Sequence to fold (237 residues):
Amino acid sequence: MSSVLVLDDVHVRYGGSHVLQSVSFEVPDTGVTALLGRNGVGKTTTLKAVLGLAPRTGRITVRGRDIGGERTHRIVAGGVGYVPEDREVFGGLTVEENLRLVDPDAGADAPIVRELFPDLVDRRAQRAGTLSGGQQQMVALARVLLRENDLLLVDEPTKGLAPKLVTEVADVLARVATTTPVLLVEQNLPLVRRIADTVVVLDAGRVVHRGEARALVDDPALTTELLGVSMRREGAA
Fold:
C-alpha cells in the first residue's frame, strides 16, 4: 500500500523543550489513521509540524513532495486540509458566510454540503456562534471539504460532544475516508475502533506503537499500557 504522508526523523523543539523526538511513521493513501496517546505527548504538535505551524526538522512528504521547507499556506494549497481542535469557525458570520469564504459560488448549496451536512443547509442563515459544539464541528468539517484535498488532518473532532453528535461526526469521517485519507487525533476508542484502519501511538514525543486499530483497541492490557485507558472507560461512537 502506498503512503500519502511520510514523516521521517521529525523533531520539534520549543525553547528548551524537545516536544517531538525522531518521529517517523507513514499514513496510507486510503482510510483513517488514528494518532493516539495520552494528553501532552505531542499529537497536536505532530499535525502542526506537518502544516508548518511548528518549528520542525526532519523530512515530511505528501505524495512524495517534500514539504519540510514550505510555508503553511502553500502546504494547504497543495492539498492538506486541517480541522483544528477548537474548530475556529467565524462566530459572527452565518453558516452560509463561513462556507462561502472557501467556495464563494456555492456555499451551502455545494453538493458535498447537501450530501453530508443537510442540517447546515437548513441553518445556513444562522450565525455560527449560536450553533451547538457539534454543529460548529460540522461547519469546520464542511468548510475544509469544500476544497480538493489529498489528505485531511483532523484534531479531536468529538471532544466535548454528546454521544449522538459523536456518532454523526464518525459517520461523516467514515464517508470522507472512502475518498480522502484522514490522519485523526482522537481519544474516543470506540470511535477509533469503528472507523480507523491503522494507529500510531505517541508517548513523550516518540512513536511507541504502530499497527492495526482493532488489534490495539481490542487488547485491554495494551490500551492500558500505552494509553492509560480502556474501551470500558470511553464513550460509545
